[in-house]
Amino acid sequence: MSVSVYLNNLQVQIVIGTRGKKGKFQNSIIVEAPEGSIINGMVMDSDSFTSFLRGVWAQYKLPKKDVHLVVNSNKIPGRLVDAPKQSPQKMRQFLSRELSDMQREDEKSIICFNELGGAEKGMAKLYAEMVPHNLVKDYLDIFAAAGIAVKSITSAEGSIIGLLEQTVAKQYKTFVLQITNGNIVTNILWVNGIFNYINSTRLFNDHGTEAYYQDCARSLGNMRQFMMANKLESEIQRVLIAGTERNDISFYGQYVADEGINAPVEILYQGLAASSVQSFEAQKAIFAVSGLYDMGWESNFVNKFNAKSEEKKMDPELKKAIVTIGIVTGVMLAIFAVTLFLRLMRQKEYDALVEYNTDPSVVAQASLFDTLSVKRDALAAQANSIRNVLDTIETYPILNDEIIKVLEDTAQGYAKIEIGSFDAENGHVNVTATANDVEKINQYIDRLEEQEIFKEVTYSGYNMLQDGTWSINVKCIFAESVGREGE
Question: 378-417 burial, b for 16+ CB within 10 Å, e for fewer?
Answer without folding.
Answer: eeeeeeebeeeeeeeeeebbbbeeebeebbeebbeebbeb
